[in-house]
Every structure is written in C-alpha cells, then in structure tokens.
Amino acid sequence: MRTTRIRRTALTLLIILLIIACFLAPYAWVVASSLKNQFTVFGDVTPLSWRAFVPVGATIENYVSLFERTNILRALLNTAIVATGQVVFTLLLCSMAAYALTRIKFPGANVVFMLILLTFLLPIEAMMVPLYQVVSGLGLSNTLVGIMIPWIASPFGLFLLKQAFEELPAELEDAARIDGAGHVRIFFSIVLPNVKVPMVTLGLITFLFCWNSFLWPLVIVQDPARQIIQVAIAQQGSPTQLPNWGETFAGATVATVPLILLFLILQKYFTQGMATSGIKG
Amino acid sequence: MADVQLKKVGKTYESASATTIDGLDLHIRSGEFVVLVGPSGCGKSTTLRMIAGLEEVSSGEIWIGERRVDELDPRERDIAMVFQNYALYPHMTVAQNMSFGLRLAKVDKAEIRRKVEEAAKLLEISTLLNRRPKQLSGGQRQRVAMGRAMVRDPAVFLFDEPLSNLDAKLRGQMRTEIRRLHKRLKATTVYVTHDQVEAMTLADRVVVLNNGKIEQQGTPQELYERPATRFVAGFIGSPSMNFLPAQVALDGGTLVLRLNNATLPSPADRRDALLPYVGKTVEVGLRPEHFLAGDGEPDLSVPVEMAELLGPTTLVHFTLAGVPCAAMLAPQHAHPEGSQQPLRIAHDRMSLFDPDTGGAI
C-alpha cells in the first residue's frame, strides 16, 4: 500500500517535472545561447545535446556588444513609457466604462456591452490598416502615443472589471452616498479600492501585452529612436547582414527580465485575479 | 431630531412586476420609533429608500423637520442609515468606517476622534477600532454599522432589516440593544423589517404595509388586539391567528355565532355591527391563546393531532371546520396526541372579518 503511494507520488512528480522542463527549455536555451558566441549557438542544437542548455565557456560578449552597438537602452525606456502609459490609461478608461455599464441603467446597455465584446473577435491583423489610417490621420504615427492609443479601450479590460463591479454590493455605494460622498468620491474612494485584485490583474496583462507587442509598433513607428524593445531586437542587424543570433538572444533575455521581476512582485494579485475572474491565462 | 412626513408619496416603476407605492401618507413624530412591516415586496424598503434619497419619488412630498427633502441628495437630508448587509467599507478599519462621513464633512480631526470613541464606547466596540470588517463577527459588524450612523448625529435614523443576517440569539440581543440606544438617543427612527416579532418588540408605532399601501398603523398592542383587516390579523402575532368560518344567527333573539358544532355568543361590543350579517357567514379570528382549557364548561372538543411543548406553554394542533388550527394552552391542561381536547373560546376577544372585503367587523 505504502509502496503504491510512493510510486504514484514519484510518477506525479515526474510528470510535473517533464511539464516544467517543456516550458522552461526554450527560455533556458535563449539564456544559454545569449552566453555563447555566434558559431556555437546552433552547433549545439543539431544534433541536440545538453550543451544547448548549458553555456560551456560562457561569455558576456553578446551583452557588451548589445549595449555598446545598439540602442537597446533607449528601446527599453520607450517600452517602459508606452507600457506604463497604456496601463494607466487602460485602467482609468476601462474602470470608468465598466462602472458606468454596470451601475447606470439605460436602454440598450446590454447591446452596447455585447458590441464592445464582439470586437474581441477581430484579429489584430485585420484591424491593422484602418488603425494605421486613423492613427496617422491624428498625426500620431511615429510617436509613442501612437503605439499605445489604439489599445487603451480594451474590451477584455471592460469585461474583467464589469464582472468585478457586479460582485461589489450596491449597498456600499448607497452607504457612501448617505455618508455624503459624490459620484467621483464614491468611485475613487469606495469602488476602486475594492476591486484592487482585478485592477492589478488587468494592469499586469496590459503591461505584458504592450511589452511583447511587435506588429503594431513595427507598422506605426519608423524612427529607430522611438521603437520599442521587441522590434528593436528584431531590427538590430542590418537587413543586408546575417542576424547576430548571440546578440538577439541577449536582447531577448534583457527584455524578459523586467517582466519576470514585475510578475514576481505582483504574482499574488495576478493569480487571485485569474482565479476569481474565472479567466484562464 | 425631527418629524418625518410623507405626503401622498407614490413610486412607480417602468417594469410592471416591481412594487408600486400609491399615495402613502405617514407622519412620524420627532423621537418616535416607527417600524414599517410587511411581507416581501410590499414596498417597505422602497419607502425607506425614498426617505433616504436612494430612490426617487414619483409623486408626493417628503418632509424632514421644516424642510422638503424629496428633491435633495441623501447627504443633504441629515439622515443616517443602517443596511441589511451592514455595507461596511471592506478596505477601511472600523474607525475609518465610522469616521468616513465626518471626514467628508471636513469635521475637525479631534472632534472626529472624540465622536468615534464615544460611539464605540457606547456600543462596546472600543477594542475593535483598528480591525477591518472581515475580522469581525456579524454582531460586531452590525454594531459598527450602527456606530457609523450614530457619529453623524442625524435628525433621523433609518434601519433597513438590520438584524436579518444574524442568528436568532444575536437577533434578540441586538433588538434589546437597539431599543436601549433609542431610549438613550431619543432619535426619530424608521425601521423596516419583515419580522413581526421585531416590529412588536421595538416599535412605538407599527405601520403594516401591503401592496404599497398602509393596511393599518398603531401601537403594537392595538395591532395585535384590534387588527383592522384580516391581512393584519394574519401577519401580526406568532403563532398566527386561526381563521374559521362561522354562521351568524339569531337564537331566541340573541345574536350567536355557529362555529362547527359550537354556538358562541357574539362579542358584546360588536353586536350592532354583526346584525347585517345574520344568516351569512363571517370569518372568526382566534389567536392561539384565545382557546382556553381547564375549569369551565367547554364550547367544543377537538381531536389533538400534535402537541408541542414550548416550555411555559404547549401548542396543541387540531383541525376545526376543515381548517388546521393551533391552541396555546398551559402544559397541565393540554391533552396528549390522539385524545380529545375540550376547549373554551374567549369570545369577547375574538376578531371578526367580512369574508368578502377582509375588513374587521
């Protein structure tokens, strides 16, 4: 009986370790490759050996070259500005819109909500040309504002926060009204502090989305000095040269560090938010 | 403290299923404890919310003191409200919850602290001031909600079913607490409940609502002993009143009521009112304690279906004239299940109702 239990636990552990390995292997390969020279990066992959994941004779030459030769620090700063702006404005806009749709009863409120949710179904690629025309028409092409502005009104954010507001008892707002609070005070002092978890979740998801975005920034920004990190990594080599894979992997590693730090700090809220909203990541 | 007056107050909703309040007239005197009671959906909470300003009035006027308030925001009405689900702000401590309204009113910090500490002491929650609502029991939360209302020194206190989330024992304790506080503060209080025991024990005056209209208002004793309608008679009192059909007849010049096989003299004070009903059937309302056992000639004998010992009394269940009935008897006079129970009827205390209109005769 005891032996069976030990075997079952061992098997479960083995399966978990295999799944973890599957998820971690690409990251391990990227980090290991960033510490190798250009010639050994792919040499260890075909045929695949343990050397692919362990940088034998590790060198930081790719990192040195990345920071000296390319504008990666500028790209990191641009990304941080765009991502932070997008988070702030998405939270502000989505929370106010979701609150209005939840609490203000008007004819057609459900239709409006459904129409907003339907925009979920449109793939980004399909919206690229009209979006480009609108954003350029506003004179925002080649700007950091132009990168973030189309994504601020997030239907996902609206959905997530509307669910949270619906769970908040309306009596809290009634109590605040009797206590003497107006609409703005109720929203910022009573409502928002009680949807902290979904707000942090939405903030984190928005930050991740923005940090990892590639296609839209590639389309809307042509000036390398205003480009964000994912595009900057892809564009670091000259179109006429073969890519420097060591530098590319070093760039990818550098770009991942802020996200890992952010996730480690906020993971408590993120997992809670995912669990309570019933949304799978 | 201030009077509260509702003058022909009406509330209509677009959706037909919702409660409609129709021309409600009510004058609550300064310092009075008035309980609005009625079944679910009768409009009692809507009435309270209209006084609070949380619901708009469709017609009529609401006055608090010398001011007409039905067009004013809740914050301008000088009221405080205790909600059914406490409505404590989860992200604030007890002290912050209690002082939120005062902080918004920009009251001096020292004054806020003094008022919060005073209310906390009165409600015996001084040790809880730094806790958050989720760290409190139901009873403690209710005290905090009351404290939040008290610190504002309002002209009128409004309570919306504040005890319905508490267990029976705590409900009893809090009832006493609320009554004690009212005696001390002497504030005008409007209290909504669907629990008639709460209404009877707390109120100076009970207002019974049904389908958005006042069915009857009066002291708890008036409502219990002289219900104006069959609805009030059935709603007030626990266990509830027994309603039995009885034939009104003249027996040798004496007005009598024929109830099953028993012939009862009509109540002396209602003989004139009963005369038009001779030959007709009326509804007799008998409270469980209107059935008597022990000494004296019994009016009827009934088979005991079930006998419940409640301690000081026994509730004897039986069927009379096809209607399930209950009698509250002294345990020593209650007969066991399956036997015949002789009963007298306190005919001077019985209620009589017109079977068509439901009005008292």
Give an account of the 3D structure:
The complex is a heterodimer of chains A (281) and B (361). Chain A is mainly α and 281 residues long. Helices cover 70% and strands 0% of the residues of chain A. Chain A has helices at 2-34, 61-69, 72-103, 109-118, 124-137, 144-148, 155-167, 170-179, 183-191, 196-211, 215-220, 229-234, 245-277. In chain A, helix 2 packs across helix 13 (245-277). Chain A is globular. Chain B is an alpha+beta fold. Chain B has two domains: 4-235, P-loop containing nucleotide triphosphate hydrolases (Rossmann fold, 3-Layer(aba) Sandwich); 242-353, no CATH class. Chain B has helices at 44-52, 94-104, 109-122, 138-150, 168-185, 196-202, 220-225, 230-235, 271-274, and strands spanning 4-11, 21-28, 33-37, 59-64, 67-68, 79-82, 156-160, 188-193, 205-210, 213-218, 242-251, 254-259, 262-265, 281-286, 291-292, 300-303, 306-309, 314-320, 323-329, 340-345, 351-353. In chain B, helix 2 runs parallel beside helix 4 (138-150). Chain B is elongated. The chains are: A mainly alpha (281), B alpha+beta (361). The A-B interface holds A 169, 171-172, 174-181, 185, 190, 193-194, 196 and B 49, 52-54, 73-75, 79-81, 83-85, 87-91, 100-101, 104-105, 148, 152.
